[in-house]
Amino acid sequence: MDIINFTLNNAGLVLEYTFNHLSLVLIVLLISLALWISTGLIISWHDRLAGTVISLSNILFCIPSISLFGLFMTMPGFGLGRNTAVVVLVIYAMMPLVRSVYLGVKSVDASVVDAGKGMGMTPLQILLQIRIPMAWPMIFAGMRVSIVIVTGIATMATFIGEKNLGRLIHQGITRGDSDMIITGAIIVACMALLLDFIMARIQRRVISPGLRFDT
């Protein structure tokens, strides 16, 4: 009941932080999908480059988020604010997206690809009409993982000036107010679950029943 009372008594602030958090997550996801899906497709053509890019994405993902936020904050042209938050979160979305696209495209049965070649399809046609459609289940899996990761790590952006749900949690820790902490944490968790649910519904509509696995 205390959590409900806190939320009702501070509805304006909670809504502001929730909107800011959601807008940041959506901006990051749009940029990440465009950037990292393209990267995954490119490295699927170059195995040597793929090893380097995937290793780099793994290394970057292992860096503590507070350290990466702090590092970019000190770089010229970044500083405090949303731009830095977007760049850092896009970096954290790299690993699951690039890996899922690369592995999805490379895992397509060779016999299916050979059949396409036998029909006279060009490499680009094979990519667009065979490899990508058959890789969609794994690509969507990477998207859904990225959504959860970005939604959670976005709370750390409060340390570089973002007024999102992370600020609610941080202020709760500073003040020793468990209601603030729990309220922020619950909203973040619900947001991640909601976005994942939406992506799962899109996945079921986009992917052929013969290709998808249960979500």
TrEMBL record:
What's a GO cellular component annotated to this UniProt protein? plasma membrane
Listed transmembrane segments: 22-43, 50-73, 85-105, 135-160, 180-199
Single GO biological process annotation from the record: transmembrane transport
This protein's major location comes to membrane
Q: What CDD domains does the database record attribute to this sequence?
A: TM_PBP2
Q: What name goes with this protein?
A: Binding-protein-dependent transport systems inner membrane component
Family classification = Belongs to the binding-protein-dependent transport system permease family.
The record ties this protein, via InterPro entries, to:
ABC_transp_perm/SBD (IPR051204), MetI-like (IPR000515), MetI-like_sf (IPR035906)
> Which Pfam family, any one, appears in the UniProt record?
BPD_transp_1
**Localization (cell):** Cell membrane
| Stored PROSITE patterns | ABC_TM1
Topology relative to the lipid bilayer, per the entry, is:
Multi-pass membrane protein
**Domain ABC transmembrane type-1 per the UniProt entry, residue ranges:** 18-199
Q: Tell me which Gene3D superfamilies the record gives.
A: MetI-like (1.10.3720.10)
Q: What does the UniProt keyword field contain?
A: Membrane, Transmembrane, Transmembrane helix, Transport
- Organism, by scientific name, is Desulfonatronospira thiodismutans ASO3-1
